[in-house]
């Protein structure tokens, strides 16, 4: 499924997790990003600045971004579903 990137944890140069708005409206952090995924995101993230901070649906804090970046994710279906980024769209 596709999800909108609305934030991150870590730094823009080396994000640890992405904050995603899922199609059902929930906001979740991804699993830790791999080096390959970080390399895919760097060109997109280098063009934006953090715009504040917020808290995901499960309570995790993250830095917000004003971006239209959409990524493909796989999300579990349980209450505390794990969200894994697959690739940047």
Briefly summarize what is shown.
The chain is 12% helix and 47% strand. It has one helix at 35-45, and strands at 2-10, 15-21, 27-29, 50-55, 61-65, 70-75, 83-88.
Describe the structure.
- The structure is a single chain.
- The protein has 89 residues and is mainly beta.
- It has one domain (2-88).
- 12% of the residues lie in helices and 47% in strands.
- It contains one helix and seven strands.
- It has one helix at residues 35-45, and strands spanning 2-10, 15-21, 27-29, 50-55, 61-65, 70-75, 83-88.
- Strands 1, 2, 3, 4, 5, 6 and 7 form a seven-stranded antiparallel beta sheet that branches.
- Strand 2 and strand 3 (27-29) form a beta hairpin.
- The longest helix is centred in the middle third of the chain and has 11 residues, at 35-45.
Question: Characteristics of this structure?
Answer:
single chain, about 90 residues, mainly beta, seven-stranded antiparallel β-sheet, 1 helix
């Amino acid at each position: 499924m596709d999800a909108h990137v609305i934030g991150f944890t870590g730094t823009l140069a080396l994000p640890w997790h992405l904050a995603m708005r899922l199609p059902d409206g929930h906001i979740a952090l991804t699993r830790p990003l791999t080096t390959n995924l970080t390399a895919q995101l760097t060109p997109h993230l280098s063009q934006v600045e953090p715009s504040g901070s917020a808290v995901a649906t499960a309570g995790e804090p993250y830095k917000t971004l004003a971006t239209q970046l959409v990524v493909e994710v796989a999300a579990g279906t349980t209450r505390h579903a794990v969200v894994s980024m697959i690739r940047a769209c």
